[in-house]
Amino acid sequence: MAAQPEPTDSPIALPVNLVLIGFMGSGKSSIGRILATKLGFHLLDTDALVVEAAGMQITDIFKWKGEEGFREYEANALAYLVDRNAKGAVVATGGGIVTRESNLPLLHRLGFVVQLTASEEVIFERVSRNKARPLLHTPNPRETVSELLSRRAPLYAAAADYTIDTSAKSHTQAADAIIAEAHRRYPR
Ligand code: S3P
Question: Is 88's C-beta closer than 6 angstroms to any atom of ligand 1?
Answer without folding.
Answer: no
